[in-house]
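Open question from group meeting: does this chain pack into something compact, or does most of it stay loose? Before anyone orders reagents, we agreed to write out a predicted structure and look at it together. Recording both the input and the output here so the notebook holds the full record.
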Amino acid sequence: MSEKDVKQTEFVEMAPRVSWFKRFRRVFFSRRLVIFGLVVITALVITAIFAPLIATYDPYEIQLDNILAQPSHAHPLGTDSLGRDTLTRVIYGTRPSLLVGLVAIGIASAIGMSLGLIAGYFGGWIYAIIMRIIDTLMSFPMILLALTLAILLGGGLRNIIIALGISMIPPYARVMCAQALTIKENDYITAAHAIGASNRRVMLRHLAPNCFPPLIVLMTMMIGGAILAESSLSFLGIGINPPAAAWGAMVNEGYRYLLTNPILSFAPGLAIMLVVFAFNMVGDGLRDALDPRLRGAL
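Structure tokens returned:
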């Protein structure tokens, strides 16, 4: 083999590996839909925080002399059946939607991941009891379970968050349990036990961090699902109580005027669609970027 061939072989064998952050950034931002989702989510957060500065009117101000006004310069999306500015209420509707999505997913992920970690790590009868409870919850469709809990607890923002948080526990528990069952067999977990690490230390320092990447993807995707579920419950009249601005309730209020003033339902419906789509796209991008099979790949 010539000297030139040897150098080429060494170059191929010693090709530099791409850093984790560089690969994550390249994969995550490689799709335009993911970037679009990030823009929508950023706009949602900014709108929720600065709603009083962005909105022109009071979302609860009733103007009986301006009922069901068509879109105009003063009211870009018209007014509803009580004369309230539709655009203002859509803007303020970002607050409960974002709050429900984040807090409900926070509750579901915290409880679900804890149960899944305990079940996967200890196994045996602990695994059997926890996973049978999770299977019982999974026997009900998520939206039906949330609807039942919301009826039992009553409407309102707090009760809707609790209902959605409980109904979304099973996916996190199952994913975490599956990850824990696989990862606890690795050599570094055995080594941690060999040097005398406690079960708590092994679970929190070695097991949980390595189980977390798939759960980040699941959390991102299910935020959109939580927002959609809250809108569905509000549409049915069980969600956020009026006169609070909620997208689902606005769709319910506006469907009676679809022939004369369709924007009353289309505007909040479009907001729901865009936000859910955005979170799903970002979650899809995170899944691709965190896929361990792509680590180190150019």
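Observations to bring back to the group:
The chain has one domain: 33-57+77-294.
The radius of gyration is 25 Å.
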